[in-house]
Design a protein that fits this description.
This protein is of the alpha+beta class and 488 residues long. It folds into two domains: 241 residues, 3-Layer(aba) Sandwich (Aminopeptidase), CATH 3.40.630; 146 residues, 2-Layer Sandwich (Alpha-Beta Plaits), CATH 3.30.70. Helices cover 39% and strands 22% of the residues. The protein has 16 helices and 17 strands. The strands form four sheets. Strands 1, 2, 3, 6, 7, 8, 15 and 16 form an eight-stranded mixed β-sheet that branches. Strand 1 and strand 2 form a beta hairpin. The protein is globular and about 80 Å long. It binds zinc ion. Zinc ion (ZN) binds next to loops.
Length: 488
C-alpha cells in the first residue's frame, strides 16, 4: 500500500514538473533581435492631412444611386496636390474610375514588386446619430491630440500613413530597389470593384506581386487574457462567407386548432439543433499557430495550457470556443439573422424561413457548410437552400514563414518594442480578396495600436485615431518599405 502511494505521488510530482518545465520553455521563438526605432515622424503634418482627408465625404452607399462623384473627384484633386512629391516619383493613374494606383519604379527590374494598399471610401454615418459624435463626423477636428471623424481608422488613416511614409523617404533621398505599388480603393465598403480592376490590370500586365499588405487587424491592447502587451496579429488569411436559408414547412390553416408541429416550431427546432452542433473546429492549422505564438508572450499561468496541449487540449478548446473572439478564430461561425413566417396573426404558416450567415473558416469550403447544415437540420419538412449565389470561399492561407511576413513583423517589433507578433485570421472581408489573386502572399494588417474602445468607432460612432498612433503608423510603413526595397 505504502509503495502504491509513493508511486502515485512520484508520478504526480513528475507530471507537475513536466507541465512547469514545458510552460517555462514556452517563450517567444528566437526572433532576430531588432534595434528599437529612434526615429520620429512629422506627426503634425500627418495629422493635419488626415483631418483634411476626412472632410471629403467619400461615402460608399449601399444604393449605387447615392454615389456622389464630386466628393471623390475633390478628394483625388486634393490628394494629387498634397502628395505631388510622391506622385512625381511614383506616377499615379486612375483605375476603375476612382481607385488610385501609384507605381514607384525600382532599380532592379528583375525583382518582384510589392503592394501597399488602403481604401479612401468610408461607410455612411447612420442618419440621426450625428449628435452622438463628440465632434461632427466630417469636420476633421483635431482635439487633445486625437483626430476625429469617419474614416480616421477605416481607412483614410492607412492611406495617409502610407503616403506620409513614402513622402518622408523621398525627402531623405530613398529610391526603391524593386517596384512598389500603392493602391487606394474607392469602393471597398461595397465590394471593391476598384481593387478588382487593379488586380485585373496587374494580371494583364503580367505583374505577380511577391506580397501585398492591406488593412486587416491592428496591434490590439487587452484582446487576449494574460497578454499585457500589444498583440499584432498579422492576418494571413480571411474567412469566406455564405448565407443559407433554412425552410420549414407545415400545414396551414386557422390558428385556433393548431397541430403540434407547425412550420415555426420545426424551424425553431432546426435552429436549436444547428446551435448544438456547430461545424467542427478546434485548435489546429492557422488557429493553432496564432494562439501558440501569442501565448508565448502571456503571463506564466496563462501559458500553462498552451504549453501543455497534450494535457489541456479539450479544456482549451472549450474555453476559447466560449468567447466570441476565440470561437470565430477556431471555426466557421453560424449567425441566424432574419426570420419570416405567417402573414397574419391568426394564420398558420405553410412555410417558416430563417436566413443564416456563416463565416467560413479556411479549413472548410462553402460546400462543407451546406453539407453540414443539410445533415443537421434536413428532414421531410426542413430543407436548405442557397438563395444569394454560391457564397465566397475563404482565402488561401499565406506563408507566415515568408520573407514578406518577416519584413512586416520586423518593422512592427522595431516601432513597437515588446509587441507580440503572430499570424492571424481575418474574420471580415477586405479588398485583398481581389489583390490576393496577383500576390504570392497577401497580408492584412495596419501597424497602429488600437484599443477595444477605439474599435467601437469602426463603422460606428466617434471614429477616431490618436496623433501618436498615426505617427507610429507612418514610421512602421517607412520601415516596411525600406526593408522590402532598400539597398541590400
Ligand atoms: Zn476598411
Amino acid at each position: 500500500m505504502k509503495n502504491i502511494i509513493i508511486t502515485v505521488i512520484t508520478l504526480l510530482a513528475l507530471l507537475i514538473a513536466v507541465v512547469i518545465l514545458r510552460t517555462w520553455m514556452h517563450t517567444p521563438a528566437d526572433e532576430e533581435a531588432v534595434e528599437p526605432s529612434q526615429r520620429t515622424a512629422d506627426v503634425n503634418r500627418a495629422a493635419a492631412r488626415l483631418a483634411e482627408a476626412i472632410r471629403f465625404r467619400t461615402v460608399s452607399h449601399q444604393n449605387e444611386a447615392d454615389f456622389e462623384a464630386q466628393a471623390f473627384e475633390d478628394f483625388i484633386s486634393w490628394f494629387s496636390t498634397t502628395y505631388a512629391d510622391v506622385i512625381a516619383a511614383a506616377p499615379m493613374e486612375r483605375v476603375g474610375h476612382y481607385t488610385l494606383l501609384l507605381r514607384w519604379p525600382g532599380s532592379d527590374a528583375g525583382a518582384q514588386p510589392v503592394l501597399l494598399t488602403a481604401h479612401y471610401d468610408v461607410v455612411p454615418v447612420i442618419p440621426g446619430s450625428e449628435s452622438a459624435w463628440s465632434h461632427p463626423p466630417f469636420d476633421g477636428v483635431i482635439a487633445d491630440d486625437i483626430i476625429w471623424g469617419r474614416g480616421a481608422l477605416d481607412d483614410k488613416g492607412g492611406v495617409i500613413a502610407q503616403m506620409e511614409a513614402a513622402s518622408a523617404l523621398i525627402a531623405a533621398g530613398f529610391t526603391p530597389r524593386r517596384d512598389i505599388y500603392f493602391s487606394f480603393g474607392h469602393d471597398e465598403e461595397v465590394g471593391g470593384g476598384g481593387a478588382a480592376a487593379v488586380a485585373a490590370k496587374l494580371a494583364g500586365e503580367g505583374v505577380q506581386l511577391e506580397w501585398s499588405l492591406d488593412e486587416g487587424s491592428f496591434l490590439f491592447e487587452g484582446m487576449l487574457p494574460g497578454l499585457d502587451k500589444p498583440f499584432a496579429a498579422i492576418n494571413v488569411a480571411e474567412k469566406g462567407s455564405v448565407t443559407l436559408e433554412i425552410i420549414a414547412s407545415g400545414t396551414g390553416g386557422h390558428s385556433s386548432m393548431p397541430p403540434r408541429d407547425n412550420a415555426v416550431n420545426r424551424l425553431a427546432e432546426a435552429l436549436l439543433a444547428l446551435r448544438e452542433e456547430p461545424l467542427p473546429g478546434g485548435l489546429s492549422g492557422l488557429s493553432a499557430e496564432m494562439f501558440d505564438a501569442a501565448s508565448r508572450h502571456m503571463a506564466f499561468t496563462y501559458r500553462i495550457p498552451f504549453a501543455n496541449r497534450w494535457l489541456f487540449d479539450g479544456m482549451l478548446d472549450d474555453t476559447l470556443s466560449a468567447t466570441t473572439f476565440g470561437n470565430a478564430m477556431l471555426r466557421t461561425t453560424i449567425a441566424p439573422t432574419m426570420l419570416s413566417g405567417s402573414v397574419k396573426t391568426n394564420v398558420l404558416p405553410i412555410q417558416a424561413v430563417a436566413t443564416v450567415n456563416f463565416r467560413v473558416h479556411p479549413r472548410d469550403s462553402v460546400q462543407d457548410v451546406v453539407d453540414h447544415v443539410t445533415r443537421v437540420v434536413g428532414s421531410e419538412h426542413v430543407s436548405v437552400r442557397l438563395p444569394f449565389g454560391g457564397g465566397r470561399e475563404a482565402s488561401k492561407v499565406s506563408d507566415a514563414n515568408s520573407a514578406g511576413f518577416g519584413i512586416v513583423s520586423r518593422a512592427v517589433r522595431e516601432v513597437f518594442p515588446g509587441a507580440a507578433v503572430a499570424p492571424g485570421l481575418m474574420i471580415a472581408a477586405s479588398d485583398t480578396r481581389h489583390y490576393g489573386k496577383v500576390a504570392d502572399d497577401a497580408f492584412r494588417f495596419t501597424p497602429m495600436v488600437v484599443t477595444q474602445e477605439d474599435l467601437t468607432g469602426f463603422h460606428g460612432t466617434n471614429e477616431k485615431l490618436s496623433v501618436e498612433t498615426l505617427g507610429k503608423g507612418v514610421l512602421a510603413y517607412q520601415r516596411i518599405i525600406e526593408l522590402a526595397a532598400g539597398a541590400q
